[in-house]
Design a protein that fits this description.
By secondary structure, this protein is of the alpha+beta class. Helices cover 24% and strands 22% of the residues. α4 crosses α5 and α10 runs antiparallel to α11. The protein starts with a strand and ends in a 6-residue tail after the last strand. This is BTB domain-containing protein.
Length: 488
């Protein structure tokens, strides 16, 4: 049990963390981290906070002093609160590294008051007797989004749910001990009684008893007496490396640490098809933590859409927005499939801005100081052009057929010195703006796409975002808001 925050002997709000081992009575609190040691700029406001420990992380939600107010003494905190120097925030402490990180979901809490927070666990289990239960942790908030909130208002009128996996909170059961014993039996002809054939014709020797125990699809196939069960031979229309990695998981209950990212991507599709929830979450976590690069983010993003993994999709969008400049230069956005392109565009609000952190010299000369930001507006407002000088390329645009979505930038192989908007769009989505290589020269790789409004899949809090130019804001439709009290 973790105990966080509270008051010291002088009545001041503290942010110390203690741990109590409930398996070793008598119970004694052991200090884990003091507020002075964390040095993260997080200052609690009074005791208005809630804590939850999940997936090796400590989540703390409540009101905090903003950086402009943190220079004041504790005796002035009440005045700071009255002067709107505080805001709601969600912080996450890694219990292994003891490092704090503020989560970029505060856009949802800019309006109204939020008075309760907890974590709701949703178990994913294929069969009742299946011990490999995968849990999805959803962050649940209660409050009132009315900005006026007259006296006597309902403190718990509105609910907000955020998918925990969009914050990389993957709750995966540990590996079974028997996995180390069964692993060497794979593809051993001795005592094997079943053959699985990959798409290229290569065979893998397996054991029916293991496949029946570990693979519900094969169990149903065996019980139904289908031709594969009678012939003891089955074909899987996937490349040999993917089939081998899949069988390795069935035998060892773990994913090989050396599997390349493209194999893990295909395993993600395979696990979704066969309803293997644990393997599916392992693939999501592995792809995000180890294989997320400029080259791999587009294929992973497309796979996340296909298997309906909202959490992974949100993490990919966050990565793509933060590395938007590098994506433009690498010309990877042009490889988006129509479905993925539509999904990507749907998360770009009309107020999206391509924020550039530093200037860069153009090959033809020095770029004007006014040319360090490219604003991406809805087509009803003109795209802000760079100054037409001899040292900076001109900007030209063509009208788009979109009426509902703002345009975003995509890299082109063109070598002209003008920026031309091409690629016509459908009536419900806007076109991708094509950037020429000469324009890319003044956009550093650190450029990111800055969005200033919260995006939710249902009735959302309409609010503006506190400007944080050093870090992009990701508020996505992994958060769902309702106007009814949710019964649990």
């Amino acid at each position: 049990m973790y105990i966080y925050g509270g008051k010291d002997e002088h009545g001041n709000t503290v942010s110390d963390l203690f741990m109590v081992n409930l398996n070793a009575p008598p119970y004694t609190s052991h200090p884990v981290l003091s507020g002075t040691q964390s040095n993260n700029g997080m200052v609690l406001l009074k005791s208005q906070h809630f804590c939850e420990a999940v997936c090796g992380k400590l989540l703390v939600f409540g009101r905090y002093l903003l950086p402009t107010a943190q220079v004041q003494s504790s005796s002035q905190q009440r005045l700071s609160a009255a002067a709107s120097d505080s805001a709601y925030g969600l912080w996450m402490l890694d219990l292994d590294t003891l490092e704090w990180e503020r989560q970029e979901c505060d856009d949802h809490f800019l309006s109204g008051g939020w008075n309760y927070f907890t974590v709701i666990q949703d178990a994913l289990r294929l069969e009742k007797e299946d011990p490999a239960q995968v849990t999805v942790n959803n962050l649940f908030f209660l409050g009132n989004t009315d900005p006026l909130r007259p006296h006597g208002y309902d403190h718990f009128r509105d609910a907000l749910i955020i998918n925990g996996e969009s914050l990389a909170l993957y709750d995966i059961p540990p590996t079974r001990q028997t996995g180390h014993e069964f692993g060497p039996l794979l593809n051993n002809p001795e005592l094997s009684d079943f053959v699985i054939v990959a798409a290229d014709g290569q065979e893998l020797h397996a054991h029916q008893v293991i496949l029946i125990t570990r693979w519900p699809h094969f169990k149903n196939l065996y019980r139904s007496g289908m031709m594969e069960a009678q012939e003891r031979r089955m074909e899987i229309a996937e490349p040999y490396p993917v089939v081998l990695a899949f069988l390795k998981y069935l035998y060892s209950d773990q994913l090989d640490e050396m599997e390349p990212w493209h194999v893990v991507c295909e395993l993600l599709l395979l696990s979704n098809m066969y309803l293997l929830h644990r393997l599916k979450k392992i693939c999501c976590q592995r792809l995000y933590e180890r294989h997320l690069t400029i080259e791999s983010c587009i294929p992973i993003f497309e796979k996340a859409i296909l298997v309906d993994e909202t959490g992974l999709k949100m993490l990919l969008l966050d990565f793509m927005f933060k590395h938007y400049g590098a994506l433009l230069k690498a010309d990877v956005l042009s490889h988006l499939s129509p479905l993925a392109r539509q999904e990507f565009i749907s998360y770009i609000p009309d107020e999206a801005i391509l924020q550039v952190n530093r200037l860069r010299h153009h090959p033809m000369g020095h770029v004007s100081p006014h040319a360090h930001q490219l604003y991406l507006k809805h087509e009803s407002a003109p795209l802000a052009a760079l100054p037409a000088t001899a040292s900076a390329p001109a900007l030209a645009t063509s009208s788009s057929t979109s009426t509902t979505t703002s345009a975003i930038s995509s890299l082109s192989n063109a070598s002209t010195s003008s920026l031309v908007s091409t690629h016509s769009a459908s009536s419900t989505s806007s076109s991708l703006t094509t950037l020429s290589n000469s324009m890319i020269g003044i956009q550093p790789s650190s450029a990111y796409l800055y969005t200033s409004t919260a995006i939710t899949s249902s009735s959302a809090v309409t609010s503006s975002t506190i400007s944080q130019p050093h870090r992009p804001v990701l508020t996505t439709n992994s958060a769902v808001q309702t106007n009814d009290l949710i019964s649990i």
